[in-house]
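Quick start: what a row looks like.
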Amino acid sequence: MREDRQHQAAFATSPAAAVPPWGTQIATLSPATRDVIVTFSTDTWADAVHRDFCRPPEQLAFSLQADDRVGQLVVTDAFRSRAAQAVDAVKRVEVAFPADERTHLVRPRQWSRRPPMNEREARSMAMRYDDALAQAVRMHELTDVVVITTSALVAGFAPMRWAARVVFYARDDWAAKAETPTARRAFDAAYEGLRETRRSVVAVSSVLLDRLAPTAPSIVVPNGIDASVWGPRASEPPELAALPRPIVAYAGTVDDRLDAGAVRAVADAVAGGTVLLMGPLGRVHPMAELSDLTAVRYLGVLPQARLAAVLQHVDACIMPHHRTPLTEAMCPLKLMDYLASGQPVAATDLPTTYGHGNRVVPVGADDDWGAAVHEALRKGRATDAERYAFVTANSWRIRHRALIDLALEAGDSNDPE
């Protein structure tokens, strides 16, 4: 396996590249506005900059800022220790949050550097986070406050009595993602807290919404596409010109969700071709298992524009995930990127694999990944008209309309008792 380290450039090597796409269409605020707080779950604005604003929390912030029903908007980091915030400042290009009279960033601090490990610690963290949010409410003189949090622990354990409404934006099944039984029990207790307090949930998949079983009005809003990234087809990146074809690509976190056996089968099926892996390495990953495959090349983390250019010029894409409770509840961003690129896809037959017409070849537990990839390759690239239609229909702004409607227009529901 080759590792092309010269292409492992992290995002934001220049301040100009890190300017977020705040909405510019708002001339005056609606007379009936509501102030909104949106929170990260385990990460921060600095992380959003680092990853090129590619995930739901920061995209929701952009969507809220562009909605004239929103008065003041407060974006809130997850807790960081003072030491961790100092490390963030050293490791990343310093990018000032684009604050103005109606948009603010809050960066809560705590002494501990580790996440909560059990229910007691999770409840304590949520209460301290509640205090930090309440302080922001007072500082910015927020009124009629709606909280949209991506943290299951905050949604389930923080009372937020000062808020008119609290909505949980569920991107993953955090209980299924937990690494220890005590952490899983903490998330299960948080889910029960959601139900007891009758807080609305916006989940990225129907499987996830069913698991959370909310007791308040709730909806499914799948993940979306950054339409600004997927415009006209980019020029072919020069590094692809020398790679043997067909080129089959995987773009996403390379971690224990990735089925190394399936990747090996794909490499065998495209003998003489190339399998590209792109994305950050997880704490546990299968790269060692793939090290003997000369067809596999790891490009590391690419900026979104560069990733789009690469995907638009490969021959097919793959999503070889293990079938687990975690992956069954996901709405993979990578699948949306693949379809926005116009490439055919072979993907593990998870619930969100379906519903995309004939562009995705589902691969069952007993199916042959090699045959599935060849079927995808025969489909060829979608037309520009088909690709534009997909991007337009699935942009983050379109996706988030239903979420924001639920959060701002539904009757208030915050019953912390």
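That is the whole record. The first strand starts at residue 2 and ends at 3. The domain at 238-393 is CATH 3.40.50.2000 (Rossmann fold).
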